[in-house]
Amino acid sequence: MAKVQIADVIVPTEFQSYVIERTATLSAFWRSGIVVRDATFDALADGAGVTVPMPFWQDISGSPQILSDSGSLTPKKIGTSQDLAMIHNLGDAWGANDLAGALAGDDPMMAIGDLVAEYWNRSLQTRLINSVSGVFAAASMSGAVHDIHAASGTADEDNYLTGLTFIDGKGKLGDAASKLAAIAMHSAVEQSLRKQALIDDVPGPDGRTVISVFQGL
Q1: Which one of 10, 149, 204, 208 is most buried, counting C-beta atoms within 10 A?
Q2: Is 83 helix (H, G, I), strand (E, B) or coil?
Q3: How far is residue 107's CA from residue 115's CA, in Å, rounded to a whole number?
Q4: Are residues 212 and 199 in contact, defined by beta-carbon separation less than 8 angstroms?
Q5: In this structure, are residues 84 and 52 in contact, taking their beta carbons and an 8 Å threshold?
Q6: Closest CA to 95 of 84, 81, 75, 109
Q7: H helices present in the chain, as ranges
Q8: For the chain, first and last CA: distance in Å?
Q9: Integer Cα distance of 127 and 201 in angstroms
């Protein structure tokens, strides 16, 4: 006796509605407001080329001269130098076919619009941290680096960021240490400091956000 079997029929497929996958890589450092826009730098970035020479007057050094009624003071001069700023010309693009959205039953462009802002936050944070790392990797900054990481083997307390090791690192900056305004750290390092009760959470200026503070930074 013939009968209709599973192989004889078309089984419809039911798909779950699309959800958005959000990366676990966040951008707290960039979104903290550590970087602000400046009209002067905006104008420089709008110029041609990929670098911007930034000349500056050097500080006055030496010792004052002793006044004497037998001679006049010897005029000195002030020195100049220049930094070189990089212009990061960044862009990205996304696209979707209308048919792809129709077949998917969801709007891919709406998903892209929902994700693109945080994508740029993550990208710019990576560029910011790499730029800062590059600054401290310069030979002229070697005296301002307090490196306690373990290059091999197992790390111990001497390799951890603590209140004491932070003071040692901050001391490398001398009087300029008072100019420090913020600190960025890996979440595992923050967790270690919280276990040491060295991080305080204080309300942000808007009364809604919370700012984590370590050694006043």
Answers
A1: 204
A2: strand
A3: 13
A4: yes
A5: yes
A6: 109
A7: 28-31, 39-45, 98-104, 108-137, 163-171, 187-195
A8: 83
A9: 27
Residues with Cβ within 8 Å of residue 60, at least 6 apart in sequence: 76, 78
Q: Give the containing element (helix H, strand E) for 81.
A: strand 80-86
Q: Give the percent of the chain with pLDDT over 90.
A: 24
Give the tokens for residue 20. Answer: 């958005």
Q: Is the pTM value of this prediction over 0.70?
A: no
Inter-residue contact 147 to 140 (CB < 8 Å): no
Average pLDDT, the chain: 83
pLDDT at 49: 83
Question: Residue 58 is encoded by which pair of tokens?
Answer: 């050097």
The string of pLDDT tens digits covering residues 119-135 is 888 898 898 889 888 98
Contact 177, 185 (CB under 8 A): no
Name the residue with tokens 């696209």: 95
Backbone angles phi, psi at 86, to 5 degrees: -95, 140
- Which amino acid makes up residue 152? S
Strand partners, 213: 200
**pLDDT by residue (tens digit) across 124-175?**
889 888 988 898 898 988 888 899 988 888 888 888 999 999 999 999 989 9
CA pair distance 64, 74, nearest whole angstrom? 10
In this prediction, the residues of the chain whose per-residue pLDDT falls under 70 are 1-6, 8-25, 100-106
